[in-house]
Amino acid sequence: MRIVKINIYRFLYILPCIFFISLAIPLYAKDASLKIGITSSLNKVFQDPPYDFQGTYTNTAEIELARNEYEATQLVLFPTRDLQKIWISASNLKQIQGKHEIPATNIDINIIGYINLIWPEIGKNRSGFYPDPLLPNQTISLSKDKPQAYLVTIHAPTTTPSGDYEGTLIISDSSGQLSTVKLKVHVWDITLPKISEFKTLSMPQWSYTWSMWPEDKGYSWPSWDERKQRFIKLADLAFKNRLPPTATLVSGLNSHNWKDQGWTSIDYPTHDGEERGPKTFNPQRTDELINYIMKKGANSFFIAITSDIYAIPSNAKQREETLLKYLHDVIPHLRKRGLMNKVYVYNVDEPWGKAVDHAKSIYKLIKKEFGNDVFIMQNMNQDNDTIIGEFQNNFDAIDINLGFYNINKTDTYRKNNPAAFKDFWWNINIWPRTHPNLFVEYPLVDARILGPMSFKYNVQGFEYWDLLSMEGIINYSPIKPGELKLNWRINKGSLDGLLVYPSADMNFYSSLRFESFRDGMEDQDLLYILKKLDPHNSLLQIPIINNIDDYTQNSVEYLDFRRKVASAIETLKKAKPRK
Questions:
Q1: What residues in the chain have per-residue pLDDT under 70?
Q2: Which class is domain 31-191?
């Protein structure tokens, strides 16, 4: 009896332990099924080895930003088994010392999708699925050993008090809460301007408002009003990401050359009329679009993009008359509104051979007809050191390819004739295939460095040729709900000219490259602020950039530089006596 009694006591002692352990096992199993990694917004994390994860495994994410700025971090889920119905949500961010909150509506959680690059632009780069599309937050499934990255972006409104905030990211699965991540946010005592000193714009065509949703995919032909609604959706996203389509949004001049064909016509949105009939200026719709871009913070826009109207002698006179007719309709209206200091006519794009002299003739024609308050921008993407000299005194703003900056001997021309280069822009595109660029396989630092690099080289503006180019895309189809790996196959071109992804419901999704570009433009705004406070500060030399093609590719170094700039601004603001 004594032995039995002892065994019963032991059993009674062990029973509660067994009970609590049994409760703990499912929780432990859940935790063990998912590792959580945090890395910077500049890290491309792949789903197939090598993953190239450059962060740490932790349950705490930290973000620093100014007021009126967007800044992001990446949350990466590493499942050790298949998981169903994964969902991530965010709480409000509460001020640690104070009562203010940044609402959860200011936290964007985007699933990072993948695009299939079958032919990298640079041969040594990997092929396969690259992270880039930023898809809506949604319930998804995770496969064992297939990391899934999320971009978590904070926006601090201009009214946000500086200081430290904390909140929570909640990760749930089909059985309930799986894990949490503490989100620590520090808001600097700095406010970025609504309208930047730096000018940016892009050139997507109105035709994309129907070609992105083609009839052979089951979509109907849109009316002009439907096209305008779609273009405004694109513009909303592009304004947010600091590359608005203001080159084409308020331009009704349709001027193109293709092989031995050329035409110039007046069209929507500035004018109304039958396709081949006379066109009537529509000041109401023109003002509607101008008011929209002004409200969004536009500091520049094109009213016309002309091709070489003299390329084909047989119709050159008619094309010249059409160009002048269009400008006679639009320019007086813009003068009445006092907008001529924001407006450009974009002359012949990338002229070669006879087109160089033709572009000069177009410049003189417009100046003679309308006067010097019409600014004319001349693009001259050539890989030689004579093209800038050839165009001397035939432009008000110059636009060259960043990759040709040194080849063009740009510094020499700017030094010898500074008055001619008060409005100096640059661009990037498929040629030359140099760094920095926005190819999908290039490091994301390439996109972000464009802001500080523009500051270092005293550039006033940046234009990008497109947002929705379909060149080199095979098997295109708008992104369907729940589609995380796009069936597109990217051929040579590496998504040059495509920074947004059309969805099946006629919206546009952003991309890692697009958001990184925006972040770089915001970093440039910080540099402008620092320059006003201390024009001789050593940070303004941008030590992370040695030359056009020699700059840090290390995201830690880049973000550390940004932090130093913000710290210098806050220190100078505190030291400056208040008036």
A1: 1-31, 123-124, 577-579
A2: mainly beta
